[in-house]
Amino acid sequence: AAFARTNLLNTVVDAQYEQVPAWLQTWENAGLIAWQDKNNDGVIQYGPGAPFAGSPSFTGERGASGERLLSNAPTDAATELYVDRDIMVLANPEIAGLPGWVIALIAAGGLAAALSTAAGLLLVISTSVSHDLLKSNMAPNISEKHELLAARVAAGVAIAIAGLFGIYPPGFVAQVVAFAFGLAAASFFPVIVMGIFSKKMNKEGAIAGMAVGLTFTFSYIVFFKFISPELNTAEHWWFGVSPEGIGTLGMIFNFIASVAVASFTKAPPEHIQHMIEDIRVPRGAGAAV
Predict the structure, then answer these.
(1) What angle do CA 196, 202, 206 make, to 5 degrees?
(2) Contacts of 282 (CB under 8 A, 6+ apart)
(3) Which residues pair with 43 in a beta bridge?
């Protein structure tokens, strides 16, 4: 990101549009970079201003300086250059004058990382649904054939949902990752920590905490990103926390609900408490006392 921004500023900013490198017009033709000459001086200005929302939307016409006119460019921003943030990693080698095969390597590396992560997550999802949910709880007498079928169906549903969010992303990739980590922090993290370090935490407390943290965090994100996106500003956020960081509050609510419910319900069985003690002792150090 630092190299991409540096190369962009050194090669494009304050340059005449007729003298810009060929890569800018290449990405402009792809609809992922745009320039709107607001002061009609033919020079590309790039400064502070309102961020550009979404990909450039061209009108099909050209301005006095030869630029392709935009239908969705903010008129009150000081900047005239609009760059789709998703392309910067792929555009950086071309900006730096590197050969095309470098771009291919970067694209291959990104796809390999995405596919390996997706494969691992699909295995976890399918196993959780087929074995942990069905075999261990809802349908203990299910056959291995039907368990495998359930795993495949779960993987297919997960792929469909992921594909839908890929086509209609709720935000920039970093925002989506922040949502995922926020939901994980509000649901799994407190349960894992207290399951290891607290012998008093029982399943009722863990389930209640996960339900509270996940419901709050998910509702907060959905409200500001889908239901009322016009209210997604600092003055409407709880304690000034954006939807990308609300998992922190969800985690706190998870801890509070888990401890409160666990204190009023039955303690875990004695063998579970012994197991927790054994977890804390390094292997080979002897039995826990």
Answers:
(1) 80
(2) none
(3) 16
Per-residue model confidence (pLDDT) at position 7: 77
Strand partners, 81: 35
Rounded CA separation 140/15 (Å): 69
Q: Check residue 30 and report its DSSP letter.
A: T
Phi, psi of 60 (to 5 degrees): 95, -5
Q: Kindly compute the dihedral angle of the four CA atoms of residues 62, 66, 68, 69, in this order, to the nearest 10 degrees.
A: -60
Distance of CA 206 to the CA centre of its chain: 25
Instruction: Give me 195's structure tokens.
Output: 């399951």
- pLDDT, tens digit (0-9, with 9 covering 90-100), for 239-268: 888 888 888 999 999 999 999 998 888 888
CA 212 to chain centre: 21
**CA–CA gap between residue 222 and residue 243 (Å, rounded):** 9
Helix axes 88-95, 2-11, angle to 10 degrees: 50
pLDDT in tens, 114-173: 889 888 989 998 988 888 888 888 888 888 888 888 899 999 999 998 888 888 877 667
Beta bridge partners, 70, equal 58
Q: How far apart are CA 114 and CA 120, in angstroms?
A: 10
Q: Is the pTM of this model over 0.85?
A: no
Closest CA to 71 of 31, 30, 41: 31
The residue to which tokens 């295995």 are assigned: 123
